[in-house]
Specification:
2 copies of one chain form a homodimer. By secondary structure, chain A is an alpha/beta fold. Chain A folds into 3 domains: 7-50, lambda repressor-like DNA-binding domains (434 Repressor (Amino-terminal Domain), Orthogonal Bundle), CATH 1.10.260; 62-163 and 297-327, Response regulator (Rossmann fold), CATH 3.40.50; 165-295, Response regulator (Rossmann fold, 3-Layer(aba) Sandwich). Chain A has helices spanning 7-14, 18-26, 33-45, 52-59, 76-90, 104-116, 134-141, 165-178, 194-209, 229-237, 251-263, 297-312, and strands at residues 64-69, 94-99, 121-124, 146-149, 160-163, 184-188, 219-221, 245-248, 273-275, 292-294, 323-326, 329-331. In chain A, strands 2-1-3-4-5-11 form a 6-stranded parallel β-sheet, with helices on both faces. In chain A, strands 7-6-8-9 form a 4-stranded parallel β-sheet, with helices on both faces. In chain A, strand 8 (245-248), helix 11 (251-263) and strand 9 (273-275) form a beta-alpha-beta unit. In chain A, 47% of the residues are buried. Chain A binds chain B through residues 1-2, 49-54, 56-57, 60-62, 72-75, 78-79, 81-82, 85, 89, 94, 96-97, 99, 101, 109, 113, 115-118, 120, 142-144, 255, 259, 281-282, 285-287, and chain B through 1-2, 49-54, 56-57, 60-62, 72-75, 78-79, 81-82, 85, 89, 94, 96-97, 99, 101, 109, 113, 115-118, 120, 142-144, 255, 259, 281-282, 285-287. The structure holds a DNA duplex.
Chain lengths: 338, 338
Amino acid sequence: MSYQVTIKDIAKKLNISKSTVSRVLTGNPHVNENTRRLVLDMAKELDYQKNIFARNLVTHKSNTIGIIVPEFVTSFFPKVIIGAQTIAAKAGYNTIIAQCNENYETEVANFNVMLANQIEGLIVSVTKETRNFDHLKIFQRKEIPIVFFNRVCEDMDVPKVVVDDYDGAFRAVEHLIEIGKKRIAHLAGPDNLSISRRRLNGYLAALRKHNIPVDEEIIIPYDLRLDKVKIYMNYLLSLPNPPDALFAINDPTAIEALQVIKEKNLRIPEDMAVVGFSNDYTSALIDPSLTTISQPVQKIGETAAELLLQLINNEISKNSLLIKTLTTELIIRHSTVR
Amino acid sequence: MSYQVTIKDIAKKLNISKSTVSRVLTGNPHVNENTRRLVLDMAKELDYQKNIFARNLVTHKSNTIGIIVPEFVTSFFPKVIIGAQTIAAKAGYNTIIAQCNENYETEVANFNVMLANQIEGLIVSVTKETRNFDHLKIFQRKEIPIVFFNRVCEDMDVPKVVVDDYDGAFRAVEHLIEIGKKRIAHLAGPDNLSISRRRLNGYLAALRKHNIPVDEEIIIPYDLRLDKVKIYMNYLLSLPNPPDALFAINDPTAIEALQVIKEKNLRIPEDMAVVGFSNDYTSALIDPSLTTISQPVQKIGETAAELLLQLINNEISKNSLLIKTLTTELIIRHSTVR
DNA sequence: CTGTTAGCGCCTTCAA
DNA sequence: TTGAAGGCGCTAACAG
């Protein structure tokens, strides 16, 4: 690391005390307007950059928040990050980003990185493997505020930003019913993720509302590993009484399913209609284009960051069981309507 | 920020000196095996976490590298980051990630964030707007090593990780020629990006090798704003002598182009064959699937990080004009071959 | 092998 | 309005 200009250097050059220089640089008002100018000019001239490590050490503040996401492959989480980072930056906060490759161990490791960096608050969406939340509880013990989004831990008493998965799923399935489908399968997510459960419940509610019998045989929870989709679709399509529609937990799953259906030369949507969830970039482009539920991705990140900053600044109580639910939108495309 | 356990606390509890505790914690070998155990146990018991700000302050090392990417929307850059982060983590380095929304001002701001965080090295791919590189030169002046990847600044004398764009483009175009195409258009990138120029050169070389005349009329550089693709495609297709194939600078561009061609009810690949570059997630899924050049995405990140760590550790000279060129692969799909 | 000491660069009393 | 001094938590000599 090369030499860095310090407050001492500025003080020496100007032949004044370090404390005066420091006052100017911290925005302390009790400084002569003249000396302030002098210091500021000199700081600029020397290209002074505050040593944040020294500042953090003495102020016990890191001015940094963390974001931990389960993966980086779909565009969903990166877009959420953009939203969160924008808000954080406006408030003068740095952001540390970590992704977990959908791996629990990595998640725990990332939490420790956050701890080591003394972040003032954390925005999290957990991996699909995460069933144990002890690593999160350390943050609560240390009173570092946390905000969940998307994949939340419902048992934990912290603010969450979610979309109305129940309602989205409900409308997705109701749409399938409205176009005349009678036997709707569901490729569900792992039930440790609350989004899986909420979407499943929306699915069930829509069936019930329209007096369609629920058949456990065609409700398949899986671990979101896309290579499994083919197996489950083959199973569904080989049933004596196969489904005429599919509601998939998310778009990648739906897209995988579409490939299998196409390989079998079944007609979409006549033989099998498909709805996904998320409105991924790809969904509008594939053939047939995918009917799906879109989420306000960037807004999710913004909302989470706003919430977190309020918690950090004690503008809202850490214990307030705050859940921000954003709305979704049904986007109808050719996988359900020709 | 809540109370943090310090070396002092451990020392007090064990009634030994702080320096001994510190020795244990920094891996200094000159410590009695017995006291070492004692300290380690107590550290664990108290859940001690080293204050990295204090450590960084005194060691003048941040143990952190930075990665700046132009955008976060396509999966390319996030995947590169995964690769880089893996290598960095193995070497005990933290990673700070910043993305620029393809915006020059944001890029400059992000460079300052990196500076403020005293990163020991930086991995960068610049935005499509970046034509001025002064913000990079500050790093050279401070002797903070930089490694470029993908979108590099060729004038700067720093190591770079690229794929063989020239060769990839060459093979893409040669493939079009081999399937019988005679008039191949090119939607090129902005010429401030070297990848644009290298891919253009590969295109030109392939034409020349096969004695196909170069027609400037059907070589269109554009600013990578996808909404423009429609305009350019309409132009190309309305020419009195329209092209029978297209080589697009990247997959998103090619995919946009496919949409336009399909809307016009032209046959792909008979009337118009298309090749992209990158092998994005979507490319295999759209209809027709897109022939493209795939890049070893994660490997790019890994290579960049390895290079950077070597520079940081002075294992290679900062001035060595090092360019790592990774190879690409032609992936033939239905947009060129039925 | 262990303890003492002196800072790293900054902020913040306290006194002038 | 300014200066001097102490300390944040840690590391790294220097003694012993």
